[in-house]
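SEQUENCE, STRUCTURE TOKENS:
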Amino acid sequence: MFTGLVEEVGSIASIRQQETGRIFRIQADTVLRDVHIGDSILVDGVCLTVVTFSAAAFDVEAVEETLHRSTLSAKKAGDRVNLERAMAANGRFGGHFVQGHIDGKGEVVSLENRSPGFWITIQLPNSLLHYVVEKGSIAVDGISLTVAQVKSDQVSIAVIPHTWRSTTLCEKKQGESLNIETDVIAKYIFKLIEPARFSPGVTWNKLYSSGFTEIDNENV
């Protein structure tokens, strides 16, 4: 479990193709403190497992499903990525529940400087729109953000200067793809209520056949 509060921005040192996917070697500092093989680290919003590490870098493996679903498939050596270690049990929860399971990819529609902050508009796949509401939480490339506006298939987010400077958001360009993870609570709630959306509801015939009234539909 993560919080979406980026600890540092690392740099991809190398990428090796494997039969099962790709090995990313990422140069970092903060997230290497007390790191162990098997630890989970959020890399641009994707939960990946540390398979080896050194004093200056760590290796993680991404399988084909992860590459297909996220922007990792387009990454190259030298690219910078947002990093966050899994939340410790005694840590403070400053963002929102982020699992590191990417729901899909969004596309940057526009980036605006709205002093003192910034305004980013992202186009989302239709399949994700059910889980997004104004003032709700969304993870963009692993960054916990609050949705300011929803219009059709686009969401707009107001970004404070600190978040802009301390993550890769300041490097994004129009048309660029972003990893999107919607709020897990919204997904569970939608799953629970979805069957009711397609039920016929309460009809007079249903009340009559269930014994709630002795007057059938013909005598109403």
Observations:
- The chain has two domains: 8-85, 104-197.
- The chain has four helices and twelve strands.
- Residues 135 and 158 are 11 Å apart (CA to CA).
- The first helix runs from residue 64 to 69.
